[in-house]
């Protein structure tokens, strides 16, 4: 047990963590119960008593109703400690471990109070660097942030020294990407990220599964989340997921600049707005389309998040925007889709096909093309890839060259179908190409020697009829090679006859999905 100055009488241990042990003690001088955190010996040695006491004096100047104050600090027998008021309300972690979920009202209140404390400290040049449920305590029902002292004391300590102790500065699951990677100087946005993780955990039940990328932030939707997280995120009111996505952005520049902005955005996104009639919602969507025509975006369409934000400004909840979008989608005229080259629609599958119309015998491939009016946004590419893999029942590799999407099979074995799909938006149109190179594989190769032998035997009567016995071997070999060539083309022709209807359906489905994505009235969320 730690040996502390005589004025502190240890009553028991309150908790033990990766950086310190917390004791409940009685302060004999003032006749009160307080909590003392004693840094672990290795960490104390890495920080150094002089630096620790100097830095912690700075945080002792913080005076805010939602910051747990620092009462005392010191060093004894090589141990570093600091003293805080004893808070009997427990930590946020205790409530998260309970059976009942926190109400949305409680989540917003805790977020607002913690954000207030962070903005106050940030305004005085103090970062926390370790915001997590264990450091958010409750005093008389109010949230107070603890451990500003230790965070400030550890800031600037040589990373090599801390690495030797095996103790990270921060907590995995709550550390910002830049803090975890140790890249660049930290600012207030690293605490914004950590607070975003805490808010996510209060709402969803656990910390985020991954760092949202630039595309997630642009769309205002967390894509790479476990199914159980998705269910809870979809149940959130309004635009709260958009707010979370921005708070958790991989790049600091994409996040909120202040914790208070995060809290304000959450509150605004969660507000319940009055219901309006379907006609009023439709008029809103029509007006949004007019604004888009006057001020087009780069992709030529408003995103769902943009329309929802516009709707929120006039009191329309996002669920009504989505309902109106679905209604308009059903009633909208489909975008123009053309086939290149133009030809009659393929006969139904139930009718026999006597020749594959898209088969290029010279190149040994099936080649289909479709053209859609309007340029498909890159945000719709994921849906196209999903459609390709579902139709072909094959995993594949998708790559981007400029704005062109190219899909090809992931496996490269002999039995793998050589299908390549490209999608290119250009000059106001979207060009879709579906190609499959036909090859002889497996048992089909047996037709090659059969074809060669058959052609060679058929050449013998011709040789006899022409009395060209001296040339018989040469003619037989030539006939055999020709038979091999014709057999290969014959097998490929039947393969094309079998596979073209499937590729036709794939090309038509991709064109239909692209057409839905470029509809100007609905944008990429159609």
Explain what the structure shows.
This protein has 5 domains: 8-85, Phosphorylase Kinase, domain 1, CATH 3.30.200; 92-270, Transferase(Phosphotransferase) domain 1 (Transferase(Phosphotransferase), domain 1); 278-331; 338-439 and 505-525, TATA-Binding Protein, CATH 3.30.310; 442-489, no CATH class. 44% of the residues lie in helices and 17% in strands. It contains 18 helices and 14 strands. Strand 13 and strand 14 (429-437) form a beta hairpin. The longest helix is centred in the C-terminal third of the chain and has 46 residues, at 472-517. Mean pLDDT is 76; it is low at 158-168, 297-301, 340-353 and 520-526.
Terminal-residue CA separation:
64 Å
Mean pLDDT, to the nearest integer, reads 76
CATH class of the largest domain: Mainly Alpha
Helical amount among residues, as a percent range?
40-55%
| Main sheet properties | 7 strands, antiparallel
- What is the number of independent domains? 5
Q: Radius of gyration over alpha carbons?
A: 34 Å
Structural class per helix/strand content? Answer: alpha+beta
Strand tally: 14
Uncertain segments: 158-168, 297-301, 340-353, 520-526
Shape: elongated
Which range does the strand content fall in?
Answer: 15-25%
For the record, the CATH architecture of the largest domain stands as Orthogonal Bundle
What is the CATH superfamily label of the largest domain?
Transferase(Phosphotransferase) domain 1
The total of helices stands at 18
What fold name goes in the CATH topology slot of the largest domain? Transferase(Phosphotransferase), domain 1
């Amino acid at each position: 047990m730690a040996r502390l100055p005589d004025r502190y009488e240890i009553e028991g241990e309150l908790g033990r963590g990766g950086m310190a042990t917390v004791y409940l003690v009685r302060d004999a001088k003032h006749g009160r119960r307080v909590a003392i955190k004693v840094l672990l010996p290795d960490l104390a040695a890495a920080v150094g008593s002089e630096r620790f006491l100097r830095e912690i004096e700075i945080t002792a100047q913080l005076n805010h109703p939602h910051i747990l104050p620092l009462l005392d600090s010191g060093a004894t027998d090589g141990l570093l400690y600091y003293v805080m008021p004893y808070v009997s309300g427990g930590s946020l972690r205790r409530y998260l471990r309970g059976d009942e979920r926190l109400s949305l009202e409680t989540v917003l209140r805790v977020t607002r109070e913690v954000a207030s404390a962070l903005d106050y400290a940030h305004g005085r040049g103090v970062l926390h660097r370790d915001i997590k449920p264990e450091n958010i305590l409750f005093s008389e029902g109010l949230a107070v942030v603890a451990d500003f002292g230790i965070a400030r004391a550890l800031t600037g300590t040589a990373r090599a020294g801390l690495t030797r102790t095996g103790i990270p500065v921060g907590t995995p699951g709550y550390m910002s990407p830049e803090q975890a990677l140790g890249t660049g100087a930290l600012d207030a946005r690293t605490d914004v990220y950590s607070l975003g993780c805490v808010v996510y955990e209060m709402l969803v039940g656990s910390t985020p599964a991954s760092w949202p990328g630039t595309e997630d932030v642009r769309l205002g939707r967390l894509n790479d989340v476990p199914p159980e997280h998705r269910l809870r995120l979809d149940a959130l009111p309004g635009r709260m997921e958009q707010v979370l996505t921005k708070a958790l952005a991989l790049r600091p520049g994409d996040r909120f600049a202040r914790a208070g902005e995060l809290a304000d955005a959450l509150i605004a996104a969660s507000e319940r707005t009055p219901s309006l009639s379907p006609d009023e919602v439709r008029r809103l969507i029509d007006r949004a389309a007019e604004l888009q025509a006057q001020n087009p975006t780069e992709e030529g369409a408003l995103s769902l998040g943009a329309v929802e934000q516009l709707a929120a400004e006039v009191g329309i909840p996002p669920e009504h925007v989505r309902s109106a979008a679905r209604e308009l989608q059903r009633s909208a005229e489909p975008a123009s889709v053309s086939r290149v080259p133009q030809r009659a629609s393929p006969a139904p599958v139930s009718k026999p096909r006597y020749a594959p119309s898209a088969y290029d015998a010279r190149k040994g491939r099936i080649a289909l093309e479709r053209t859609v009016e309007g340029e498909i946004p890159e945000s719709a590419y994921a849906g196209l890839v999903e459609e390709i893999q579902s139709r072909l029942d094959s995993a594949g590799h998708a790559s981007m060259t400029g704005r062109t999407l190219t899909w090809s099979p992931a496996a490269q074995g002999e039995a793998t179908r050589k299908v390549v799909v490209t999608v290119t938006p250009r000059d106001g149109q979207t060009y879709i190409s579906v190609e499959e190179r036909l090859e002889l594989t497996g048992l089909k190769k047996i037709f090659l020697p059969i074809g060669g032998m058959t052609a060679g035997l058929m050449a013998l009567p011709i040789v006899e009829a022409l009395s060209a016995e001296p040339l018989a071997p040469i003619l037989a070999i030539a006939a055999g090679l020709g038979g091999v060539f014709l057999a290969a083309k014959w097998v490929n022709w039947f393969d094309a006859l079998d596979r073209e209807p499937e590729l036709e359906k794939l090309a038509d489905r991709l064109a239909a999905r692209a057409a839905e994505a470029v509809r100007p009235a609905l944008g990429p969320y159609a």
